[in-house]
Structures are given as structure tokens and as C-alpha cells.
């Protein structure tokens, strides 16, 4: 029974998130229906991680099992044919060992968060970025972000609804860069808590606009209290980048 | 009678191009109507250049005259309020001397053309790039492109419908770069012929995929014949970048 690993790109702006739910338009449902339409097999697709409604992905990884073995190019082209009704595309596919698991075998996940920092409303980046008018100091944001690198209790940056057993996570990298009006946050960790990236970005934006000082990030982390941190950044600016195995 | 210079961004994917025509949804018409709604003055907006249907712009420049003098921030915010029905936004505005002219005083114009070079259909870059499946060699494309730098008769890259008196143009820069699947063309010249950027890109793609050799670009240029060159690249991948004064 071959196991297929697929890497997909999606535009989350009109979707309810990765996970199948009562409402239609989840990435998981679109994938499972496309796999059924192609193979006539009912499968569960296991993702490397859930993304919230309106979050995008450049290279999200998932896996599923089929009874039949198909050539890889057939899997890619057939799924993309049935996925043309959704804003999802399969970039790569491969047959992997039975012990591969998109979620449990992922060693690291990385995200990008995009802010457009300018006066005027967004056009080309609409639904693809967080529009922030007040000037942001990316150097101060990086200074604050550096307190978060390493293994910490991230309770201050964890959504109420987070189902993880432990609030301990290891943030391997957080890098903030600016290209004119585009301010980009790159984060990498073995795994993240629910809303962790968006809560970190929301807090760092408070550092960038001067509401907080870089040193305050240390205190916020140590408070282990969601109320101590800044707001949750909007979903539209968040991109799942890759999972490493 | 103050003259206003404005810099705008637009998503051309659902527009008929810069110039006002019988069909609605031109950039010029949207701007002129927004200016009327704001000032109750009927004006003609003069652009630094026309763009075709579905072409985008990051910083297109135009000008218009009003009887009244308004604070710049009022002009920007009022126009953006009325432009919210369109995929156009005013980024900057300023009051300029009477001898300023968006078209006739522009010393240089620059464009970007974006190709996504991969097997799978586009999602995040849909309507924003040319999707090309066959592998492109960006070094060979640059080698071919270098024959075009300087002052030449660009008849081979000129649309039939081009209204310019002379086919002579001076291409100051053409630079091709790759970032994974993204292949980007940057072109700068005092002015361009109609479809010149798209015809150059369409020809260079033939060099990139091996249908032509880099040296062939020299022969195509010297042929001064549109039939000698490659196809016109689709509008969706083209971005007007800036005009210099």
C-alpha cells in the first residue's frame, strides 16, 4: 500500500484553513476530494501542520495512502486537474516509506509573515499582507525578537484554544528584514503553538512602532501570560514556507 | 491653477489598460472619475505611458490640473476613498511646476516581467506572471539580451499597431535574474515601443528554452522585421515599475 507525500501551494484567502470542518473550503477537504475523484479511494490526508483560515502556503507537506501505485507525474497532474476548482496546486509528489509521517516526522517548520508598511491601502498585496501605516523600526524588532530565540515557555504567545500539552517550544530562527515598504519576518522551529507566529509578530510590531521597547519582549516572555503580549497579527500576512524531514 | 503629480499602484488583471476607451475599467477613467467625485472638476489625467489590458503597475506616474489647491494628504486620502471600487491606489502626490508633464518630461521608464518556471499551474502568482513549464536558462537569455542594449531600430520587437514615428529606441538596461522558480526581467529605457517589452521577453524565452541561440537575437534585431522575432509574452507578467524625471 504505497504512501504518497505531496507538497502543495495554496492561497488561503478564501479558505477556512487546513483542517476539514463543518464549513466547506478547507484545504484538507479539497485534497481528499481530489484524491477520491482521481483514484476512487477514500483517504485521510495527514498534514505537516494546520494553518488558520486565510493563511497561505508555499510548500505545505502532507501524506496519504492508496491501494494503487501510480506514476508520480500522473498523481501530480490528476490532482491538479481536480484541484482546479480550488486555489491549491500540487508542486511535488513522491512515494515514501511506510514510516514517513508528514506531521510526526517533520524536524522543522518555517513560516514567513509579510507586512506592508506604508500610508496607502494595499492593492497588489491585498489579502497577502498586513497593512501597517505607522513606521516600523525593523532593527528594534530584531533586537526584541532575539530574546525569543531558544527553548522557552511560550505561554505569552499561545492562543487560548491551543491544544498542545506543553507550552515549551524551541525557536531556532527569527529574522526580520526590510525591502522598501515590505517588512518580512522569517521564523523556524521544530514546531509552533497555535497562533504563536501571529502573536509574536503582533508583539514585535508594537516594538517596531514604539509602543514597546525591545527589552519588554524579555519581560513578556517571562510573564508566561497571553495578556502580557501584543495582539494577534492578521492571518492574511502569514505564509507556511516548508517542513523539513 | 495647481498641477498635481500622482504615483499609483494598480492590479491590471481585470482592467482594459491605462487608456480610457469605449469599454469601462480603464485606469484613466477610474482616476478621472475619482478626481471628479472628490473635486467636482472634470479633468484629463496624463499618464507617463499607456499599459495594455492586464498589465500591472507598482509606481505609474500621471498628472492633472485643478482650480483648487488642496493639501497633499487630502488629495491622497480622498482619491483612495473614491478608488476603493477599483484595484488602484494613490501612493504619493505632490504639487509640481506648470512645465511638468508626466509623459513628455519622463527621462526613463522601467518595467519588470515575471516568469514562473515550473511544472505545476500558478496559484499565488496567478494573473501575475507567465507560467512556463520547460526549463529556462537565464544565463543564455542574458547573453542574448545583451545584443539589445544601446540604440537600435527595434522594428522586430514592435507591435503592428505601434503609433510611434520612429522605431529607434535606446535600451539602457536589461537584466535577467532567477530566484528558484521566479525568473525576472528588468528593462529600462527613455521610452519603449508598443509591446516592445513583451516581444523582447517572448523572444528571450525562446533563447532560454533552446529554440533559439543567444547569437540569434543579434540577427533578429538586424532583420528589423516583427516576423523574425518570438511571440508576444502575455500581459499578466508585466509590471510598470517607475518613471524617472
Automatic annotation (TrEMBL), chains A, B:
<dbReference type="GO" id="GO:0003723">
    <property type="term" value="F:RNA binding"/>
</dbReference>
<dbReference type="InterPro" id="IPR020094">
    <property type="entry name" value="TruA/RsuA/RluB/E/F_N"/>
</dbReference>
<dbReference type="GO" id="GO:0031119">
    <property type="term" value="P:tRNA pseudouridine synthesis"/>
</dbReference>
<dbReference type="InterPro" id="IPR020103">
    <property type="entry name" value="PsdUridine_synth_cat_dom_sf"/>
</dbReference>
<dbReference type="GO" id="GO:0160147">
    <property type="term" value="F:tRNA pseudouridine(38-40) synthase activity"/>
</dbReference>
<dbReference type="Pfam" id="PF01416">
    <property type="entry name" value="PseudoU_synth_1"/>
</dbReference>
<keyword id="KW-0413">Isomerase</keyword>
<feature type="domain" description="Pseudouridine synthase I TruA alpha/beta">
    <location>
        <begin position="148"/>
        <end position="245"/>
    </location>
</feature>
<comment type="subunit">
    <text>Homodimer.</text>
</comment>
<dbReference type="InterPro" id="IPR020097">
    <property type="entry name" value="PsdUridine_synth_TruA_a/b_dom"/>
</dbReference>
<feature type="binding site">
    <location>
        <position position="111"/>
    </location>
    <ligand>
        <name>substrate</name>
    </ligand>
</feature>
<dbReference type="InterPro" id="IPR001406">
    <property type="entry name" value="PsdUridine_synth_TruA"/>
</dbReference>
<feature type="active site" description="Nucleophile">
    <location>
        <position position="52"/>
    </location>
</feature>
<feature type="domain" description="Pseudouridine synthase I TruA alpha/beta">
    <location>
        <begin position="8"/>
        <end position="104"/>
    </location>
</feature>
<protein>
    <recommendedName>
        <fullName>tRNA pseudouridine synthase A</fullName>
        <ecNumber>5.4.99.12</ecNumber>
    </recommendedName>
</protein>
<comment type="function">
    <text>Formation of pseudouridine at positions 38, 39 and 40 in the anticodon stem and loop of transfer RNAs.</text>
</comment>
<dbReference type="InterPro" id="IPR020095">
    <property type="entry name" value="PsdUridine_synth_TruA_C"/>
</dbReference>
<keyword id="KW-0819">tRNA processing</keyword>
<comment type="similarity">
    <text>Belongs to the tRNA pseudouridine synthase TruA family.</text>
</comment>
Amino acid at each position: 500500500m504505497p504512501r504518497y507525500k505531496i507538497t502543495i501551494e495554496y492561497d488561503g484567502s478564501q479558505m477556512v484553513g487546513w483542517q476539514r470542518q463543518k464549513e466547506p473550503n478547507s484545504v484538507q477537504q479539497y485534497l481528499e476530494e481530489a484524491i477520491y475523484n482521481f483514484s476512487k479511494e477514500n483517504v485521510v490526508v495527514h498534514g505537516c501542520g494546520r494553518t488558520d483560515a486565510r493563511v497561505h502556503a508555499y510548500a505545505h507537506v502532507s501524506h496519504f495512502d492508496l491501494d494503487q501505485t501510480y506514476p508520480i507525474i500522473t498523481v501530480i497532474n490528476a490532482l491538479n486537474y481536480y484541484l482546479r476548482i480550488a486555489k491549491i496546486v500540487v508542486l511535488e509528489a513522491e512515494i515514501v516509506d511506510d514510516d514517513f509521517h508528514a506531521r510526526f516526522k517533520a524536524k522543522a517548520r518555517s513560516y514567513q509573515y509579510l507586512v506592508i508598511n506604508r500610508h496607502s491601502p494595499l492593492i497588489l498585496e491585498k489579502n497577502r499582507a498586513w497593512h501597517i501605516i505607522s513606521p516600523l523600526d525593523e532593527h528594534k524588532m530584531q533586537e526584541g525578537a532575539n530574546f525569543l530565540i531558544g527553548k522557552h515557555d511560550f505561554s505569552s504567545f499561545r492562543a487560548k484554544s491551543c491544544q498542545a500539552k506543553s507550552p515549551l517550544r524551541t525557536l531556532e530562527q527569527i529574522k526580520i528584514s526590510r525591502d522598501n515598504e515590505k517588512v518580512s519576518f522569517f521564523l523556524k522551529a521544530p514546531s509552533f503553538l497555535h497562533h504563536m507566529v501571529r502573536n509574536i509578530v503582533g508583539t514585535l510590531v508594537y516594538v517596531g512602532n514604539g509602543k514597546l521597547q525591545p527589552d519588554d519582549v524579555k519581560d513578556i516572555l517571562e510573564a508566561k501570560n497571553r495578556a502580557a503580549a501584543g495582539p494577534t497579527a492578521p492571518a492574511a500576512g502569514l505564509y507556511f514556507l516548508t517542513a523539513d524531514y
